[in-house]
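Handoff note, outgoing to incoming analyst
You'll be picking up this chain. Sequence as last confirmed:
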Amino acid sequence: MSNKNQHTIQLIECPRDAMQGWPHAIATVDKIRYLNSLLKVGFHSLDFGSFVSPKAIPQMADTALVLAGLDQTLLAKNRLLAIVANLRGATTAMMHPAIQYIGFPFSLSPTFQLRNTNSSMEQSLETVRQIQLMCLSNNKELVLYLSMGFGNPYGDEYHAAMLLDWTERMVKMGIGIISVADTVGVASSQQIQAALANLVLRFPETVIGVHLHSIQSNFQDKLKAALDGGCQRIDGALKGIGGCPMAQDQLVGNMDTLAIINFLKTRGMDPILNEIALSEAITIADQIFDSTLNA
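Most recent structure output, in case you need it:
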């Protein structure tokens, strides 16, 4: 189990989240080059790809090919996370020894659960149970994302007690990592801090993290709120690219990893990273995302 010391922050880089909603195709070879550069940086783990329907997320159709192309020496020193949306995807992910974490998005909004995984909340809860059993049998760990964890844009019911209730249900299943997702950037800083403080206090043996989407003007307030609330795990994406293409037409980007790193430094919580490798990864990100825009 993880230490609750606020100075121990798991920084997760999410190139998958950055790439999945990108409007232009990214070549497999470029994904491999980018991911290999990120594997040199020293992030806690890398959310690198997803095993989902290629019709739903075409950009992720080559995840298995990308994984096969990654540097084996680098993989031995890193942790990979893959997102799945159903048992079929989870079964595929289990076949890859290089993947340590399986991520599943469970939405507090029934509308978004249907849009995102084509299943009801009740069906998805059973899927979570089955994936948890699969993880235990295959020496992997489930990362449970509570998407729309701070509210939703669909008019579905939401209140703070729902977040507490669903977290408790997941903890009772033995899930040790829960990340609350502000999927479309609706959360206020006050809401984030109160929610995280409550969860961290209530579930001391569970790693509680955040997957926050924000605009440039409010990322610091949200990040400070999460840290003040005691969260131990933070997701980011270089250049602040990303967003869930299944959520709404106008994507709200991920928090920029570089901005997160700089903010952590101001709090004396410097992550131990290879700065040269980070600079090289940023250069490659500039090349890939800028070149696809100009293609």
